[in-house]
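Researcher: I've been going back and forth with a colleague about how Oxidoreductase might be arranged in three dimensions. Neither of us has a model we trust, so I'd like an independent prediction. The organism is Actinoplanes utahensis, in case that matters for your notes. Sequence below.
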Amino acid sequence: MRGLTDKRVLVTGGASGIGQATVQRFVEEGAAVAIFDRDSRALEKTLAEIPQVAKGVTVDVSDDRAVAEAFRELDEVFPAIDILINNAGISVRHESFRSITPAQWRQVLNTNLNGAFYVASETVRRMDHGVVINQSSINGLAAFPHYADYNASKAALLALSRTMAVELAPQIRVIALCPGAVLTPMQRAEYTDEMFQQVNDNIPLGRHADPEEIARFLAFLASDDARFITGQHYIIDGGETARAAL
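Model: Here is an independent structure prediction for Oxidoreductase. You can compare it with whatever you and your colleague have in mind.
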């Protein structure tokens, strides 16, 4: 992709799944990449597997004070940031809406929505010109049962992204990406084999996406090839949402 060489990129949740694949892709594009992740073991493993990573910081993005401290640590390596991939998030499958406790609700919203805000807020203060991509989901566009808290957090990210795009233009582009089913450890852990197959059967392309397929699109959206794109959300779901009018 054009314009990614030597760009300073921060990927949150970069030690596994889509985040790790994204780190690898941007490294391959010649970017300087830093990772925020709350899982110190996974982060250590990723840093060993991708030694080109410039910096790894263990941080829970749902804690605003911890995020501020993580950025102070990152400042030692990156005096400014060119690209943010706001990817950190959690998903919990519930029996029903009635079964969600206030603590569970706060946990998901604090990570997926508040955490994205904390990181974006710190990032844009360090960004003269650049790109912010917030990782939403097709769950933010339609009602997927058993995930009311996750759905709400991802829908809110769409509104946040649009508002950021309008307010931060023309210096900063802001985009939301809405993946469908992606074969990550978090996704697979939520399903029995039967449930996993049911999801695949509902996708016209017949399978989950590979994390690398999401990473490729993220690299495009962050590149100069997409320099006229801002304020939009993009669905990458193998055709799953084509079954409904969204």
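Researcher: What would you highlight for our discussion?
Model: I'd start with this: The helical segments are 17-28, 40-49, 64-74, 102-124, 148-168, 185-189, 193-201, 211-222. After that, consider the following. The longest strand covers residues 172-179.
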